[in-house]
Fold each of these.
Amino acid sequence: MNTKKALVFVVFTLFFMMTTGVHAAGTGDRYFVKSTSQFWKKSFQVRNVFDSGFTADLSEWQLKLAKVFNIGVTPIKKLNILSTTTTDSKTDVKPLITTPVNQIGWGVQTIYGSTLKNTLPSGGKGINIAVLDTGALIGHSDIKGQVVACSDFTGVFGFVENSCEDNNGHGTLVAGVIAGNSGADGKGIYGVAPESNLMIYKVCSDEGTCFSDDVSVGIRYAVDSGANIILLSLGSDSGSSLISDAISYAVSKKVMVIAAAGNDGPYSDSLDHPASNTDVVSVGAVDDKLLVANWSARGSNKVSVPYSRNYGDLEIVGPGVNIESISNHNNYVTSSGSSLAAAHIAGLAAKEWQANDKNPAKATREFLYKLSNDILPAGDDPASGWGIPQL
């Protein structure tokens, strides 16, 4: 196709898309466009920009246009929140209640151990925990005082500041486990680190779908905004280079990344991504008897060097069965899932943040190892890793 014909084709196609409504942001499938051209960014309504290209929601016409001009496009990987809202045994959710059954849940009590005697949960002051999830009900009295940031990466036109509405509920659950402060009336729940700061970043839709480009940009944004810890309670069966690169960026900036292992157990080597990534603290789930939940994902620890984090290994476990937390309906709910286990560990990391170390993220991760008590199966195993960290 010569230059003149190409120009005519582009003008005609773009005109057709605009006048017929074939292209509207958010209506197509998400793709990575391998071009840095400002023309194509504008034509395709760029969503997120990366070094080697950008992402956009492309219609069939735009895909044809990219093919005509030999522009490489690849589908963007989708992840999902590690749901705690289905009715099967691994994610049982009990009815909503207006006041908590226990202000200090068994999970927080287990993490604190004897240190909770005659005192209330505390700690995490000044530590920023970025929760990349479905958003959160930031007006809930139990976390209202802890939220310092709220942004949405999932909108039709991308990033929206001061917006992180949670119409799913998953993000609100994990936020309460981390930093519940009992509310203004002192009658709500306590999280593991009730003095920590919550940075709520909505990277997953109300249906629980998370595009890897939104997650990647969310991670980088959290790092650049001063996060100390990033919690990812989302996953998929295979990795994303965009997310892996973002995690590497976080680690290079001395930020700790924690991810839920997933709910695909008891099958071996069933850890989700990004929990499989060696730069990530991977967390499985136990019940109140410190038994690994049958559905908690298993690692590849059997074939790796013991007590050495390898790709696909389960690292540690946390309380994740029948955990009471806040709901996005401004009430309380009890649920289960590795997301909640990871939230407990994120809170503990904030509480025990090794701020005086040259690399506090690395030092805190190592401190979690020291706190970990072995549980059955014995040793560094696929079901429980190092064990459960307890004070």
Amino acid sequence: MYFLRIIDLRSDTVTKPSPEMWTAVKNLDHSKIGDDVMREDPLVNELEEKAAKIMGKEASLLVTSGTQGNLVSLLSHTRPGNEILVEEESHIFIHEVGSAARIGGLMTRTYLTESGVPSLNELQLKIRNKEDIHEPPTTLLCAENTHNAHGGRIIYPSQLEDMKSFSEYNGLRFHLDGARIFNASIASNLPVKEFTKNVDSIMFCLSKGLSCPIGSIVAGSSEFIDKARKFRKMLGGGMRQAGIIAVFGLIALEDNWVKRLKEDHDNAKLLSEGLKQIKFPIQVQEPETNILMVDFPNDIDLNKILSHLYEEGVLAFIESPRKRIRFVTHYGINEDDIAYAVQKIEKVLKNNPN
């Protein structure tokens, strides 16, 4: 099918690199790349040093994806047979193919939240008795910031501090799936170090809003990263001349490019405001960052809605099991695109009431 125009709001994973990134790759001096497994790629080394500094950690590691980054973090913090605490709708629990169990030999115990932040009193009830030979020891607490399934919600530094105190009290390590941590930083106007100072490790994506075609970063102590590097190799993530990837990441971490995320947040708010004007029984979430959730009545066929939106050139995702559609703004989407998308969404909803 031919579209005059496509507005892709499925995810910020569809973000294309900027012209500056492509120019940097085109002008790359091939003598400045090397074998990263041997720690001989200067561009990767530069990227890892830069990322560690930004995160306020001793060291960092370039990995192929957020999923791989989370997994090497879990493996580095635990031993087979341990139990980890993860949020009920977290990416680690739902969207990473059960790797914690299959590869890490870990039990996962979930905690339920409204926006990613647990009740610590309720969480305390989930801590296993390490002295009981019948129970797997609880050793790791995980959180997600921003929280995808809760609509890009932010876990603020004070909340992370409380979770860190809880972890220390219970002898746990604390890992943060910070795939979109820069969105949290920009939206709250706080340095990213404020979000990372209370976690033992963090993973963040260079792809998604930062617009790189591939790659994520894991950061933590030097000892932790040494372990993570070995687990990365075990998982097939040892890359050779990875400088060609690092070039994108070095530009993505420039201050002016990180600040560009505000445009995505503004566009998400613009989309929210537009959808609220549509006379249709939908509930439009107030976005904190670049993710907008829209809830529909139970009798609406969301697959039908998405199909008709596709025909109009607007792409989005269903957030199951809820009756909810997710829209995500990103680099490449502008205000005019948002206005166009609102017009097409209104057309579909008015013409397809059931």
Amino acid sequence: MKQQEHPLPHEGTRQNMESSFPRLSRRHLLRQGGLLSLGLTSAGLGGGSALAACSTGSSNSSSVTSKPTNSALIRVATVVTPYESGLLPALFDTFKKQAPYRIQVTTLQDVYSPARAGKIDLVISHYGHTDVHTFVLDGYGEWPLTIFFNQLALIGPPGDPARIRGLTDVVQAFKQVAQAHVPYIVNNSAGLVYLTNILWDAAGQPAKGSWYVDQGVQGGKAMQLAAQKQGYALWGVTPFLKFQQQSPVNLEPLVLGDPILQRLMVAIVVNPQKVPGVNETGARALQQFLLSPAAQAQIRLFRVQGIDQELWWPAGRNNEDASE
């Protein structure tokens, strides 16, 4: 669990990102460690120590609302990807300039346990996070509001034997991998297996011969196997770039443009009627900022240095109160 407090040094638009760093080619970026070579880790962006422990409240609290421990502080728990990509730090920096709040960020995958314990005001996670439905149905969180999509990619060797680089149709890319009998490594996280099955069905259910490699590996191990076999695999772009910094492999993102590769993320205000000490006013202000046209535009314009394609997409208009 990592905690950081803003303000932050980096802005989120293409212009500001490019003015902060020298222009790099995609291949150079990947070889040098991707995002993390640019210092866009939670530790590098935060620049400060964690705050003192906040009031924890009780996961079994009654429905009585209490005053927040610090009304000027918004405590955010987010899954790792949107923070390590640099997107959330850029958005939070913009928010800080417009509102009288400080933001304490905790990055981890189990974002809902500290929220239940009264340590968090606003949670940001994938809509499909394993704990979203129980968190909301048990009354700990208000209705999830969609804020943005993150980006998966079909990753492969620079030589690209299936000739899929730059395609915007990932089904066509999968067909070409199958037709060329180039290894496709199944990345065995549940969501990526599900997506692989969609691609396989949409591609006409090609015979799973020796090219279709399912050895039960996932994440970095799937990337290592893909590099070893000079094959292809699905993974999120941000975790891939982080992995490149730690254990470089001769692979790069090749297909990113298909909407099926996007994954929805939401912001949930912790329910002060269930969890005492929640800064509901601050959490709601930050949530509404993330849904504002200006913030949604900043999401649309955000780029990672060295990769021209969008890695984050605005999703605010998917909420019921968005304009038609």
Amino acid sequence: MNIFISHSSKNADYGNAIVDLLTSLGLKGDQITFTSNTAYGIPTGQNIFNWLKNRISEKPHVIYLLSPEYYSSIACLNEMGAAWIVENEHTMIFTPTFKLDSHEFQNGALDPREIGFYINNEERLTAFIESLKTSFGISPSIVLVNQKVKGFLKRIESFKEIEEKPSSFVPTTKTPNKNVVVAKVEKQTDDKPTINVATKTLKKGSSRLFTDLRNSKLKDEEVLLLHYIIETERFKLMTDWQEFKEIENIEAWEDVNELDKILSKNYPKALKRFEMRALTEVSSVTGGGNPKELSLLDNVREELLDLPEDIQEIISNVVQNNPAKEVNDFPF
């Protein structure tokens, strides 16, 4: 059996988090269909509708990632109907802002009386993973499962905070096109309001890293290294005498994602450029005091877990432009 994640593309961050959780616990990449991630989506050259039809007809375990955006999408509702007809089993997972009493949910194809769970419910999430053990190669380690679930919930919480931004933010009369200036009224103890002016774009996607990406200052191997870090959640990277281990991991990742060997061949240079850009810090040293592991700085890690759409597109374009080269065994 495979897992098919039916979702709105606007909730791709939640879906990617689910994929990363499941693969970190033992599921193989080819057991998951998640169309918002090229590694688990529609193969190049395939007709999207025929391919989805064939995958759904394999009677997968369908995860319905339900949200207001899901029920606002005709494509999602069509997908739900098709999957509902042929599914083997299904699980309903709700995003934090989803309302169970919504008219769409109460009158849709899925039975609202069935037990689903909110994506940030630790107990229900753990029980769901436990239920998958009968059909999938989930790790039997309780400690590992607990660690991965807690990491998942921490990641989900960052999405929730973005969705629940304070509504008291209002634009001032002068609003530049790109750097939107906003003002927030804060009440002090003497009941005199003060204005705290900030630039909205500084909160997301304004770092030097993103600026360099937007200005095409990063080489392909650097962009691919970012993609590798995001997909595998390897925020700690091996260097020096342990470098070969990281390169082996990268080569395996390139094979799975059908990518050219640009990153594995240029990993030392890409990592060095990350150091020069002040994106990393030494997190582990050898007995002789030499670095053997570098970690991304906390602020860089937080940004990579919440990429602006234009940055996602830039990375995706680099990935698509570096497919694995076909090897011709008969060069004559």
